[in-house]
Amino acid sequence: MRYRLFGRTGLRVSELLLGTMTLRSEDLARRVVGTYADAGGNFLDTASAYGESEEVLGAVLTRRDRFVLATKYALSRDAADPNAGGNHRKNLVLSLEQSLRRLRTDYVDVLWVHLWDRHTPVEETMRALDDVVRAGKVLYVGVSDAPAWFVARANALAEWRDWTAFAGLQVPYNLLERDVERELLPMASALGLTVAAWAPLAAGKLSGGTQRSGPLSEREEGGARAVRAVAEELGATPAQVALAWVRASGALPLVGARTPEQVLDCLGEVVLPPEAVARLEAAAPFERGFPADFIAECEPAAFGDGLVVR
């Protein structure tokens, strides 16, 4: 297993992140986490909204300090309580305390904002996150499923006011779902954020798994067929190829393995040759749209022969 730095910090995280939302049995969770840890994996991702699975993870986490333990807050803890959900300070404090009890720990390494809340001022969220970092209950913070402008503004405020900035961004990303390439991935690259890609196997569509529901579209089938072909040529599994494509973009795949066998299927340091990356992307066409494609088209005329290419 190889490791990367988490955002602009010194924290080392494995190139394969493990999501634990589907773990419901302590015996199974112990085997899944053990298989992942034996391979060198060190990042475990959960959330306050995952309920039972967060408790199960806490029960089996015997080597706590060897892991980068991440949880999330924002989703409602009680649908009847208007303050039991959202990005505000009250929900942050109560959700975090609940997660710490379930996980049987006095701190988490990463606390993600689970979902953007348009009703809570960004200043309140960032100051509240900084407070729990300064209290020692959280070491690093990240954000999931939010607009690029919100993340950029949040980190600008954090920099100006000496608060803790987001170090990571969690978004859905795979060969078949590439919307985040329009705004979110360029923003993350510019700000130095680590991207954790959830659903990197497109709910089993790219691995041949059983999670998918209904027939594949023509584009999806084309992408899945290309993944299988490249896997056969490289002597790898389709899952390994699909995850290698995510890593080639600079993102880290976050896999929700349900069994030790699924963990093993995702392991392997497959590196895709440029030709294979091009074949995969051609099999599942994607257009970034305006403004990215328009700017790329206009750059030669706009900036002349002196255009700098990175």
UniProtKB/TrEMBL annotation:
It comes from Lentzea flaviverrucosa. It comes from the Bacteria. One of its GO terms (molecular function) is oxidoreductase activity. Residues 16-283 form the NADP-dependent oxidoreductase domain. Keywords: Oxidoreductase. This is Predicted oxidoreductase. One of its GO terms (cellular component) is cytosol. SUPFAM superfamilies: NAD(P)-linked oxidoreductase (SSF51430).
